[in-house]
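Before relying on records like the one below, remember that each one covers exactly one chain. Contacts with other chains, cofactors or solvent are not represented anywhere in the record.
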Amino acid sequence: MSRVLFLLAVSIALLTAPAGHAVACQGQEVIFEDRFGDDTGGWSVKDSVDVKDGAFTFKLAPDDMQSNLNVTFMVENADICSDAVWPEGEQPVLGAGLLFWGENNKTYFQFGVLNNGRFWIARKQDGQWLGTIAANVDSPAINRAPGAANTLRVKTDGNKVAFFINGTKVRELRGQAPKGGWRFGLSGDNFDKQKDARVIFRTVRVTN
């Protein structure tokens, strides 16, 4: 009887555990972790960003994109994960993204998901978008419902990168990584040309 109760308890724990913990970064050493209890995690805090109470929130004007590279941490090879949450209620087309291979605020790569069930990978160089490596690719791995969470993961190894959505690998890429250390970050996109919007992140975790 005790064994049955134990197995039942384990099953309930697995079913009720947050999705982000189930598919979190898999490196052995934690380089950085932020659950956004306050704004001391090294993010650039400005009028378009709130970092408090367990949430990193981009406040997006109509037809707006915001990016935020972490200021205080540098990595080389890294496994980067973040839990993004769509806002509740009716919403425009929104994007939530991870930034990697960042040299500065104008030069980085971006991996993002849209709340219409698509993802993209793009590169920005000296403030200009050079091109989209993967544009509006449909993926059943994306949770689209208002209030739903998605765990984004980027795993780099030298010049190789793997991309995951909620534990599902969706793409691999070879590219030219920056020499030495580079920065990671978050991004939010609002594709509505008339209404403000918000994109929320609950965690960021980086392992080696």
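The mean pLDDT is 89.
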